[in-house]
Amino acid sequence: MILQHLKKFQKISETKEGVTRLGLSDWEEEAHAAAASVFSRSRKIRRVQDQAGNSFIVNGEGKGPHVVMGSHLDTVPNGGWLDGALGVAAALSAMQRILKKHRNAPVAVAIWADEEGYRFGNGLWGSRMFAGLVKEDELTQLRDHDDMLLGYFLAERGLQKKPRRSRETGELVAKISYKPPIEVGVYAEAHIEQGRRLLDAGKRIGLVTHIAGIRRWRLESMGEMNHSGTTPMRERRDALVPISGMIGRLPQLVRGVEDGVITCGAMGVEPGVANVIPDRAWAVVEHRAPTERDQDEISRRLKELVATTGPRAPGVGLEMQSISSIRPTPMSEEVTGRLEEVCRKAGAESMRMVSMAGHDAMSVARVAPAGLFFIPSLKGISHRPDEDSRREDIKLAGDILYKWALAEVERVL
Asked: What is the pTM (predicted TM-score) of this model?
């Protein structure tokens, strides 16, 4: 069953260049609907949608608490077929198997919206909203590449009310409207590792103990547009110069920080014309580390870099804005231990590990006991069209999740 579900999702928005199914898009909604259609013949099972774009496939009429499994169905541009989709397919398969044994099981599948955060840079969107972690100023400050404000975009999708200008200050103000549609009693998520630690260790399952923190910043500089040929170098206010200089120094900021990483994954200049000096340049910088202390240290170094770069670029304004900040998050020891026991009984060699990639489980962990486990990624590749895992490992993910969820259901029945 799990492979059938995965193939169904893969066909939605697949091209020769991979799978492009961006968060909060029509393609993502089609994938959510395809997942819900698995239970279309059942009158007891309902699909519940919320004001964040999440979908919940719920057995029965009660609000819970439920045994919940899930992940996401959005992708990065030209991404792979397993990132997120594995967890949803495994959850659907597990729910189907559980309901054959217990028709009234308090079980649900969560399909979180916009986990990748590609368009607005605010990852884990749907699960953060569910956990009450979204700040209202995200709606009035975050913009996409076309300068569309997140709050306006959400209003167009019918998810939130349009931001309004304050009569007192004239500033845009957004008010989040959200109420979780179900109660999570316990949660588990299956995912591909997206690295090669499991492969190198010869293990089939990775049991995540902690998920590294993720902070994203927008660096922006403002200069003066002018002719690239007739403006002498001494008279230029080139907005790109300070940004590019800082990007080249980013690797220095994580020296001495164990498992610390920093990346500039998006940047741009305006007007973007070869013979025009840029009057605006921007870059999105992300850093990750397993502890909040290490995250604070990297942030301090980045702020210091911005502060010392500004004076060396006279006539150019330089700003640093926080996009999102997700704290390092421990997974539930109880859930992890039970998953470990399931692996032991199944004869699947496992290891405990830290996840350097963010996952929806870290949001859910703020409101309920949550666990996360990995299967190996072939060659450690992810976020690429050639992302893949062995078929036997994919099936194992479904079996482990099913056995864990069945045991949780039988505890409460």
From this structure: 0.87
